Amino acid sequence: MKRISLVVLLFCGLCAGAQDLHFTQYFNAPLLVNPANAGFNPDQDYRIGGNYRTQWASLTANPYKTMSVWGDVQLFNDRFENGWVGAGGALMKDVAGAGELSATKAYASIAYHQMVGFNSLVSLGFNAGYVTKQVNFAKLTFDNSWNGKFFDVLAPKGENFLTNRQDYFDLQAGLNYAIFPSDNAYLNAGFSALHINRPKESFFATSQEKTTVSPRYTLFLNGVFKLDDRWILSPNVYVSKMATAWEYVAGGQANYNLSGDGATQLIGGLSYRVGDAVAPVIGFQLNEYKFTFNYDATMSALRSYNGTRGAFEVSLVKTGLFSEGKAIKCNIPSFN
Questions:
Q1: 246 pLDDT higher than 70
Q2: Topology of 6-320 in CATH?
Q3: Residue 297 pairs with which residues in a beta bridge?
């Protein structure tokens, strides 16, 4: 097999057996984790968010950059006595490497949320997406281009490429269960499956070389516990599997009530991705706006090369109501 540039080899590895794009602050990108999260914000009518992550800038001049914007809304809250519909959309883009390898993903989500008894909620959601992946081969070098002294960009590449772009549809489904044992406690578990239609992708010419995108299964557990009028703790666990690759993240955050009425809060926390990185988290909430920053310090063997300098990530989320006096069917603990 001919050797091509590291970027393309990395791309093939991601398709065949590694994880999809992800955020350490997965809880601040809910529609990318589970479509049942669409509209899953019981005490608000809508949410709008944005995320940005850059990774491995210390190792390459062309680091990974991942960006997303998303939003969701509750619908028909006044038409269902014990439930509502959630709808949302998300746009995600990733670009990296000298060959400008990029993935652009657009998803539309729909979910239904139903109260069960007086203190629990079950949600079912689906989304459909469209994915485009591209690479600029003109900016890559290949073994056939080496003439003994330098890489000749005009020389034949010697690779069986058919296209520099792949497009396909993507389907995802998910479930959520939440329980509200008291006004000061909330527990939530969710499971989702991405790529359930098993799309195929390849830049090469023959159908035999097309790679099936493996389903990605994700499980998360979240909790929110109000300790008193000053402190709220939010532990979380996230597990994801795609082909043979596993990702385990555990951590938590604490919100401190600075203003006394919950309008101004200081956020701090820590996450650990097993075998990979430790990520301290800091943030600030002012009324309906929440800004959060984390830095992933590399703990794997890669730290010998990057000096633990892994990734940084920021998120901004705005929530809101369309009108005051909304009937709350289930309430997540808050300072209000």
A1: yes
A2: Porin (2.40.160)
A3: 278, 309
